[in-house]
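Supplementary Methods S3. Complex input for the flavin-adenine dinucleotide-bound model.
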Amino acid sequence: MQGGLPRYSAWAVVRNALTGGRGWRPVWREPAPRPAYDVVIVGGGGHGLATAWYLAKNHGVTNVAVLERGYLGGGNVGRNTTIVRANYLLKGNGEFYSHSLKLWEGLERELNYNVMMSQRGVLNLAHSDGQMDAHARRGNAMRMQGDDAELLDREAVRAGWPFLNFEDARFPIHGGLLQRRAGTARHDAVAWGYARAADARGVDLIQECAVTGFRVEGGRVLGVETAKGFIGARKVGIAVAGRTSRVAAMAGLRLPIESHVLQAYVTEGLKPVLPGVVTFGMGHFYISQSDKGGLVFGGDLDFYNSYAARGNLPGVEQVMEAAMALMPMIGRARVLRSWGGIMDMTMDGSPIIDRTPVEGLYLNGGWCYGGFKATPASGSCFAHLIATGERHPAAARLGLERFATGRVLDEEGTGAQPNLH
Ligand SMILES: Cc1cc2nc3c(=O)[nH]c(=O)nc-3n(C[C@H](O)[C@H](O)[C@H](O)COP(=O)(O)OP(=O)(O)OC[C@H]3O[C@@H](n4cnc5c(N)ncnc54)[C@H](O)[C@@H]3O)c2cc1C
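Predicted complex, serialized as structure tokens:
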């Protein structure tokens, strides 16, 4: 048993198959909100739910509510292309994503939930000698951080990924940087796994409960106004991804964040053609094959600000062009679905886990393209900050002050332009 929940196991599946499934129970409760909590988390996506779990597990803080305006996992955590990796160059991001990948590796056992974590590898292609040099540099940084990285030459890439274009490509493949421990996970199962585990420790998960304001007195947060009335809280954490700037504005905060739409696509199921995740080096394009056989891929943002969770045709064209340049056989596959999600893009493309000027109000946001892979580390570092008041060592450089001091974490090197990161 896990806090009153039956443990999932092969034996439980067999027993329930033989008894008409009567042993299964709802995996979380539907509680009415209490008048007040020690901690209220705004946003029931991956990061909010993970924060609730680590508050309970690592810090024994269980008088916690997660307030979600829609349904749990209906945001970006259920819309992304599921890529998990720890291959960042800069100090600050390096140790944070390294911490995250280590947590991913033990997550299913920790949650007793199959999140389908699959370490099938992430290969970043290089299409010039200069890009090979840059990959070598980043691979060295990854190894210095304690993570794995291998530089592959063209023939090694061809041996493992024969369906890429090696014949008449506009951008010939020179080699690539491979992280074997990276891969994919089933995105919405991550939300469900954290939700189930947090609920079992007594966390109240309250759906259809939009936060509409903050009650602040004397510079200190006292609670939140919601669709279900006022809920008091000693501490409040914001984890609302694409809506970060709007929600923070309710507390009078103006953040270095813009919201943009990002689209993703999936084809019909095909026989295995891609062993892992591949990223194109001559454009922003990433692709993997799901366990059902669909090719799952995406590219750049749509480049304009939006709160609409759907994209436009120029974004589609750019992604399809990159797909055809890298892997012409994809032109024979039919795209089944495309969808969009709202990304909270910071000025330097890196996240924020920090206090705010309002006492008791904490901020987790700015996840840009990297928020799914960050989920475990984000939850554990945000819980640490909320519970102890101190930054977790892995998130020590993810503070708001970097936008004032100029010590930004600009992995892309594109400057203070959120849509280009
Ligand atoms: C198409 C696409 C592909 C992506 N691919 C990847 C990838 O391959 N790898 C990767 O690492 N990252 C990827 N990302 C980014 C990643 O999905 C996000 O950064 C991450 O999911 C954001 O954190 P979250 O899970 O907490 O967000 P969400 O799931 O969006 O959670 C935020 C929640 O807050 C709720 N909320 C908002 N306002 C309020 C309010 N006022 N009151 C209460 N609740 C509120 C929302 O309803 C939502 O459920 C991708 C994103 C998109 C859109």
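Residues 149 and 179 are 5 Å apart (CA to CA). DSSP finds eleven helices and 18 strands in the chain.
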